[in-house]
Amino acid sequence: MCDNGIGSFFAGEPLEGGISLMLSDAEILEAIRRKRENLEWVSGAISSLRKDYGGRYIAVQDRKVVDSDEDFERLLARVRTRDDADSVTIEHVTEMEYLWIL
User: Fold this and answer.
1) Which of 52, 32, 41, 38 shows the shortest CA–CA distance to 93?
2) pTM, whole model, 2 decimals?
């Protein structure tokens, strides 16, 4: 067990409160699918998101912004209180579009 102040990182070992990290393959695949859909939506809608949320972190669920904040920790704390927190993706929306020249 890893003593990191919040519990173990190893699957199957319970965290504080008896929460287990063991997920089924189907649950893992579903979580990956939801995250991918949210990230693809953010990527496609970034121009309009930048107008409303530039410089902020956004919480996205089912391809909709459900919360936002300038402070990541505050947003994360609110997301963690949700019953469906595992289906929420948090992303940062930059104020300006960056162009990478390689």
Assistant:
1) 52
2) 0.72
Q: Chain-centre distance of CA 52, in angstroms?
A: 19
At 88, list the tokens: 């929420």
pLDDT tops 80 at residue 47: yes
Report how far residue 56's alpha carbon sits from residue 49's, in angstroms, rounded to the nearest whole number. Answer: 10
Taking the CA atoms of 25, 28, 34 and 38 in sequence, report the sign of the dihedral they define.
negative
- Given the structure tokens 């909709």, which residue do they identify? 64
Q: Determine how many CB atoms are found less than 10 A away from the CB of residue 39.
A: 13
Q: Is residue 51 included in any domain, yes or no?
A: yes
In a domain? residue 82: yes
- The model's pLDDT over 4-37, given as tens digits with 9 standing for 90+, comes to 444 444 444 555 555 556 888 998 999 999 999 9
Q: Which two tokens stand for residue 13?
A: 């070992």
Position 71 in a domain: yes
- Could you tell me the residue range of the domain that residue 82 belongs to? 28-93
- Asked whether residue 68 is domain-assigned, the answer is yes
Question: Which residue matches tokens 């199957």?
Answer: 12
Q: How many domains in the chain?
A: 1
